[in-house]
Amino acid sequence: MQDPTRTPDVDPLLDETIPDMDPPRAPTLVAKMPDETIGDLIERFEAAGHTDVEGHEYWFARDLQTLLDYAKWENFLTVIERARIACEMSGHDPADHFPDVGKMVTLGSGAEREIEDIALSRYASYLVAQNADGRKRPVAFAQTYFAIQTRRAELNDQAAVPAPVLSEDERRCPLRDEIKKHNKSLASTAKTAGVDTPFDFLVFRTHGYKGLYGGLDVAGIQRHKGLKPKQPILDHMGSTELAANLFRATQTEEKLRRDGIRGKEKANQTHYDIGLKVRQTIAEIGGTMPEALPVAEDIKKVNRRVQKSGPDLLTDEGGD
What we know:
Layout: H1 38-48, E1 50-51, E2 57-60, H2 61-67, H3 73-89, H4 94-97, E3 100-106, E4 112-121, H5 122-131, H6 137-156, H7 168-193, H8 198-212, H9 218-225, H10 239-258, H11 264-284, H12 299-309
Antiparallel strand pairs: 1-2, 2-4, 3-4
Helix pairs in contact: 3-5, 5-6, 6-10, 7-10, 7-12, 8-11, 10-11
């Protein structure tokens, strides 16, 4: 494995403002998942998917509830309702993507009864993942998984009528906001692990990028993508690349907490390893490596355009 111990020359303006090293402590994860490999998660999501007679993918909400680690159906319905609203606000008919269906279940007595369920299209599943609690490990994975799968389907279906999806602007804005929130939470967790100073955090952050971007640090990513030194890289990432970085940040934070990692060197290595795991995930599901994704329009301009065109999408985190 690559040794990421070299201290980089990093200017805070290369990425974004260094997070306050003493932000409010992030809430404890609502639920803990047993350790699973990235391959295990991919296999579970693939196995739960279905295909109708016309070749369209869908997932049952009850199955997705379990995959996303929601214990109560009522709480998961709240997430689904936010996703329905986002669907409608995007100009699509929720009835086409969230049809109600029944499912027969066997009771302890051996009798059967019908319970409510919902068949979620790939688009609906994407919206559900975006509106679920990103602190949950499987939710963060699902956000990356459905973002990449949706983009791959768009490219494969160019000759046919594409499935309706959120515009790129509508996907980027909430993802960028989520990363801002999680970077502050990650900074707090990293400080507990021993990443004490702003410079320490810059080094810690660089390790994560190196793992995800095949050894490139912030300056290397900028050169590779043709960005100027003072252009923050996160502000010029498309939705797929933002989703990958969100997964990196949330999973690093959880591992630092769960494993009680102490010492800046161990924290740095953990961030590198998680970045590398996300990179492997992208490869395993046929995605494009993040450094090869195109540079996107400055998110500040996109935010202004979205605010002029209508209200922001609902992307509040849910929970149990």
